[in-house]
Amino acid sequence: MDFKLTDGVNLHVIRTTQFKTNQILINFNTVQTKTNITARSLLADLIETSTHKYPTQTALARQISSLFGAYVGTNVARIGNMHALRVRASFVNDRYSMPGLTDQVIDLLHEMIFHPLIDNNTFDEPTFKLQLNNLQSSIKSLDDDKQFYAAMQLRDLYFADHSLLKIPSFGQLTDLPQISAESLVQTYNEMVNSDQVDIVVLGNVDVQLIVEQFRRFEFKPRQEIKQELFYHQKLNKEPRETSEKQALNQAKLNLAYQLPIYYQEPDYSATMVMNGILGGSPLSKLFVNVREKASLAYYASSQHIAFNGMFSIQTGIQSSNKVRVQHLIQEQVDAVRTGDFTDELMQEVKDGIINQYETGLDVSSNVIEQTLLDKITRTHTESSALIERIKKVTKVDVIRVASQLEFQAAYFLNGDLN
Amino acid sequence: MDEQFYQHLNETIYSKKMNNGLLVQVLPKVGFHKTYAILTVDFGSIDRTFMPVGKDELVTVPDGVAHFLEHKMFEKEDHDAFDLFGQLGADSNAFTSFTQTSYLLSATGHIHENLDVLLDFVQEPYFSASTVEKEKGIIGQEIKMYDDDPNWRLYFGLLGNLYPKDPMHIDIAGTEESIAQISPADLYATYGTFYQPSNMNLFIVGNVDPVQTVDWIEQNQATKRFAAPTSPQVQFELNDSEGNDVIPFRTLEMDISRPKVMVGLRGLDQIESGMDGLQYRLTVELLLDILFDDTSDNYLRLYNNEILDDSFSYNFEMQRGFHFAYFSSDTNQPERFSDEIISILESATQQIETATSQFENIKRAMLGRMIGLLDSPEAIANHYSGKLFGGANLMDEITALAAIKIDDLYQIVPEFVQSQGISVYQIVPRRD
What we know:
The complex is a heterodimer.
Chain A: E1 2-6, E2 9-15, E3 21-31, H1 36-47, H2 57-66, E4 71-79, E5 82-92, H3 101-114, E6 118-119, E7 122-123, H4 125-142, H5 146-158, H6 183-194, E8 196-203, H7 207-215, E9 240-246, E10 251-258, H8 268-278, H9 285-293, E11 297-305, E12 310-317, H10 322-337, H11 343-360, H12 364-377, H13 383-392, H14 395-402, E13 406-415
Chain B: E1 2-6, E2 11-17, E3 23-28, E4 35-41, E5 49-51, E6 59-60, H1 65-73, H2 81-87, E7 91-96, E8 101-107, H3 111-123, H4 129-147, H5 150-162, H6 176-180, H7 184-194, E9 200-206, H8 210-222, E10 233-234, E11 249-254, E12 260-266, H9 275-292, H10 297-304, E13 313-319, E14 322-330, H11 334-346, H12 348-354, H13 359-372, H14 377-383, H15 394-402, H16 406-416, E15 422-429
Parallel strand pairs in B: 3-9, 11-15
Antiparallel strand pairs in B: 1-2, 2-3, 4-8, 4-9, 5-6, 5-10, 7-8, 12-14, 12-15, 13-14
Helix pairs in contact in B: 1-7, 3-8, 9-16, 13-15
Organism (chain A): Paucilactobacillus wasatchensis
Protein name (chain A): Zinc protease
GO molecular function, one term (chain B): metal ion binding
């Protein structure tokens, strides 16, 4: 059920008795800019640290803990050209905890969103400094996860010069010095007053009470976002290739292709099936031929991001096998393009996608995420229709989609401890 | 078939022991699309010295055999179990820990056929010299990948301090050298000894009819012949049960951006298995929450002094034959971190007194988190620890947790927290 709270602020309630927990997701969407990504990432950290009523981290943590072990927190994400700041809560249903728990959680979300620790137009300085340091450290530490590091390097290589998508959704170190406790108040005001807001509530709840509770939130009317949601970029004339050496036991070879097919477009289902055949499942060509048969890799997989048109392949290999692996990957891509795969494989991949989709309906956080995507992309598809679309994908569809793959970038992280 | 209804949690569990000794438990979930099943063998990486079934002398197999066996179970002479699950639209996987090996499946349809595939591939071994050789390449890559993961190195570095001469300090997958020695004969010997139905249990959660499901399994088992059950004889004795072998401190250099530190506390007390063991585990978990969770004064003080940050985590692990707690963070002040954690542990009794007012809140939060797990078929099934906790399931755990009093925390401190069991492992950025 959908309710408009004011212009640009919508509430969606899904009443179900399937779960013993309730979920609330409040999504603030805005067009990403060169300066707002890192600032919003830091803002998300400050919002979950303290508020006026709960001015220390411990005071807020104790309040959350008193709510029967509720999870209440924030995170940031990216959907195409949009940057999303999310406030999320997950907590035990009143029936299995105590009467009034849902109301108390919503009160706390209100406090966090409307009463952050801002006085005289500045965030509390010690809290700000500490969270700034923490964000800096955590961004630095991400480089220690080599699989993640290689994926980030590939993105940087793939996206066009000056593309905002080079900036990770959690921000970048070089932006941090430009952010102050005062400037972040500006970021906060924009978020709370101008962002497009979607609230999704799921659980065994009283719908009327939920609507009344959220009507109390002091959201002002705001304009709907007009900018195109999906990200597009021109093809690079020549593929970009780089390599780097680090003291590692396992090398990483990651490849990027452009595949300009977007979420819920006519070929979207065929793209999911194509990905499943090429590298998106344990039955896939990459998994079977690179990992299982040739024993060349511990992992070899592919993924497609349906909001920015990037298709990538990642492998963990021995440095000395790089040329062989790259060749073998190319063979798998060519095989899919020419329809060199069995009907059985395609059927199994389809069944696997449908199985994954249906099992996703049993995970409440997944259901609210899907609902949110539907609202943001203004698409809504019944489960049965989605499953039908997957079933209808033909070999010709898969070949058509695969033939649109354009090789764009290769990143090689060379390990020399072998 | 036994049936137990937990009224306050609105869940019912059904269980039946098959004639061959396999324990089957079913928890139906109304409204769910998925069915999750996990078949667990009471056998893990530390069970390397044992009496092979039908023999009268102990053998020691190379490190990593349990995990190797898990990988190799999927591959048969003329097919791969992955493909069979694929044809039935199911997801399947497996994992090995120190003391157990589990095979699992998740599916929305063809549940009967999927359960047959699960039981059949785990109960019909096929190992050949050539498939064993090939697997060494794949597992070798897996070991290498973990070697580059600083958090993994930190964890096993600490285990190397806590249990320097016990098998827990060795990677569950073994080492490149140890897996090179694995032969089909090793796999058959371990398989025959540990993969007996009486040493296994099957836990099913989801959209199923319990009576029908148990019938299916009985039919499947009736088609197979098993040797008379024997109880696997494993030799597992700690090198030094008093912990005189604990290495207090080691450090490692790696290419990382900030130092990482982990403080470990090895339990030197002997714990009964069964419900007492479960009670012990829950009490220690509450103790750690009261000392260190983000509602504690300790956490705020260390956080504000930048001795720890959001990467801070702690955990208590209790498995067959050993138990320990660990505390870790990325920090620019690794020495201060370990000093502070150790001093909080050593003054645990006073710490509980200071935080008494927090006890009910912390216990309620833990109860809430556990009730939340009832929404996850995986969590319900994976929580089952068999004999270790006397066959207790997640609902039993929730009931046991609700009964714990603050006095239990006071009692457990002198048993669990002993200075002899404390150790520190650091990973610091490599100097150029």
